[in-house]
Design brief:
homodimer; mainly alpha; DNA-binding
DNA sequence: ATATCTACCTAAAGACATTAGGCAAATAAG
DNA sequence: CTTATTTGCCTAATGTCTTTAGGTAGATAT
């Protein structure tokens, strides 16, 4: 029999595609084996376990998303950069809902530290440079923005804003615009 | 043999407790049967399926959370109400991480409409009354707040802010305070 | 006390995860 | 080019979870 040519990378990538098609929760070793037309046990030469496979997909998605954001941020600053970051994030989630779900997959501390997670934080700090925030405000802002992006997009993808007007796009633009104003108001030593 | 006295309600409640102990994803019909010391198949007289059980826990958690928020909001308005709402939400998630995860469980449109989800939106609108926003700004604000609460708390619970200073509490207070300012700036016909 | 109902049971089948051990295809050594 | 070695994929088997079908005994009504 001809070999299928499996590798951990191909499995993770196919797992990401499968996640976008059927949902991250439905990504199983068995489904992946069917997709490659091999026996289930064969995958275990390349991934240690189902958990490791899902972690691999999570790391892949986090890195891909960070790449997108990096590209979106290039040559921009201030409000322009904020919108570019936010839209890159949201667009990725809408194009790749399964990978986005994977990116939210919990990682143990060690894995998280080696993931693209810290890169996301760095990208946010780069974006915030134009807003000229003191510490610890900058860290607060990193967390607020992370929360808004992830939370809003998650709710939108879950259908939370469907069947009601105005459409989600408008609320998104309004929210990011409001955050821009919020950040400008907090520049440097500015209280309350 | 003495009967265990199972009912759908007891199963859902026990499922919520189990979720807090071992994680919502680990709540299974089997684990619940072990907890009640009955055979697995016995549960199927009370719940149609594993999916229905999880949906039941999700609805329970959403309602419980809405109750908490309702209580927190009583007699408060403006910034005070905003902090009360936000803290009730976050405290619930920290006290009941499994139920909080359950509350994020995707529901089909019909179930979602009959859930406490719309009540959450109404509570947010009640909170926003003091900020005197025009439509569609009020809807935008409902969505922004929903996103921030859910996103920030999810990231915090996932350990995203661990091992770094300042602690999450400070970022939370800063963020909610900043949102209060944001909302005040957008009162009525206020552009930019 | 008998009849009905139903809560919980046993039994069985199907899906997924995982491990152990085997064969054949790719690769390296002669 | 042949032989030796590695290793990619296979078969087989076990355990867990979900779900359905049909039975029994304990609760409830007559």
């Amino acid at each position: 029999m001809a070999r299928a040519g499996l590798t951990a990378e191909r499995l993770i990538h196919a797992g990401a595609e499968l996640a976008d098609e059927v949902g991250f929760a439905q990504v199983t070793v068995s489904a992946l084996a069917r997709r490659f037309d091999v026996q289930v046990a064969s995958l275990y030469s390349h991934v240690k376990s189902s958990a490791e496979l899902k972690t691999g997909i999570a790391l892949f998605a986090l890195a891909e998303l960070a790449d997108r954001v990096t590209e979106a941020l290039a040559g921009r600053a201030g409000k322009d950069a904020l919108f570019a970051f936010a839209n890159a994030y949201r667009d990725y989630a809408r194009e790749h809902p399964g990978r986005f779900a994977a990116a939210k997959h919990p990682l143990d501390a060690e894995t998280a530290a080696a993931s693209a997670g810290p890169r996301h934080a760095q990208l946010t700090r780069a974006l915030l440079r134009a807003y000229d925030l003191d510490e610890p405000d900058q860290t607060h802002a990193v967390r607020l923005l992370g929360g808004v992006f992830q939370g809003f997009v998650t709710l939108e993808l879950a259908g939370g804003f469907a069947h009601s007007s105005p459409d989600a796009q408008q609320s998104w633009d309004w929210s990011i615009g409001a955050l821009d104003a919020l950040l400008r108001n907090h520049a440097k030593t500015d209280g309350e």
